[in-house]
Amino acid sequence: KILIIGACGQIGSELTYKLREIHGDDNVIASDISYNNLGIVNSGIFEIIDAMDYKSILVCVEKHKIDTIYLMAAMLSATGEKYPMKAWDLNMTSLFHVLDLAKAKFIKKVFWPSSIAVFGPSTPKENTPQYTTMEPTTVYGITKQVGERWCEYYNEKYDVDVRSIRYPGIISWKTLPGGGTTDYAVEIYHKALEESKYECFLSEKTALPMLFMDDAIKATVDIMEAKPEAIKIRSSYNLSGISFTPEEIALSIQKHIPDFKMSYNPDFRQKIADSWPKSIDDTQAREQWNWKHSFDLEAITKEMLTQLKATKK
Ligand code: VAH
């Protein structure tokens, strides 16, 4: 059975729905530190787990006979800069707990998300390669870089079957993101429908690698279902679909909402975004476990506006 830690979050919630669809409701246990997503809490087996409390994870693993854990709980880039040591503690302690459960053979398989935040200002910005200089300047990025090193170490030394993806910014409509730098690309659709305007906290030319949630979920399921011998990289895989700037997403919205007005007021998150790549080379994921994305910006905008309109009626 599968346990999702952080199931109430932006990615965790959609992973829960998808994995329940694939494996059956009773085979996927959702958990989070509180009941802050009633859609998830009321849609199947839900447990309260503090990702920093080894015992609470182990109790749940034994109670439900869990063999696979998706660790989706973390403090993201923007919030992490407000609470650096909290971000370090949460992101690292939770990872060690899950890796140690696998090392002790309580579970068989682990998914752990990394991020393009592992890259920093000294990383090549266009088509950033899988192997390159990585000097992250956010605490979040540091936890992801170090976390990747530990995932590879536990695989090498203790044969732990941990798999990971360096997610780009992820765009979705079901659950709001929490505390990320790429969150503007989600907020903008809500504001476009509610107020026909949006004040963006990044400047108009800030290109960032992005991915629609359906593609991100597909990649996560695919990497976890791949044969172990296909997963040659045990740190984390580069992954992306598209890249765009706030200006480009505004233009794509104006095709549907002609009077949509975009304004720019960069805040502290501009410096974080400027430290990240503009586009990613994900050749290894494409070659080693057949990754490919489906949604381009036009398709994302169409889907986001359609789905949000339907939920806001
Ligand atoms: C963030 N959405 O903004 C996350 C993600 C690459 C961005 O790591 O922090």
Please give a structural write-up.
Belongs to the NAD(P)-dependent epimerase/dehydratase family. Residues 2-227 form the NAD-dependent epimerase/dehydratase domain. InterPro entries: Epimerase_deHydtase (IPR001509), NAD(P)-bd_dom_sf (IPR036291), NAD(P)_epim/dehydratase (IPR051225). The protein is of the alpha/beta class and 313 residues long. The chain has helices at residues 10-23, 38-41, 54-64, 77-82, 84-103, 139-158, 184-195, 213-225, 246-254, 269-274, 283-289, 297-312; strands at residues 2-5, 28-32, 46-48, 68-71, 109-115, 161-167, 169-171, 197-200, 208-212, 237-238, 242-244, 261-264. The strands form three sheets. It has a seven-stranded parallel sheet, with helices on both faces. A three-stranded mixed sheet has the order 7-9-11. A two-stranded parallel sheet has the order 8-12. Helix 1 (10-23) links the parallel strand 1 (2-5) and strand 2. The longest helix has 20 residues, at 84-103. The two termini are 37 Å apart. The model has no long low-confidence stretch (mean pLDDT 97). Residues 76-77, 115-117, 140, 168-169, 177, 180-182 line the site of (3R)-3-hydroxy-L-norvaline (VAH). (3R)-3-hydroxy-L-norvaline binds next to loops.
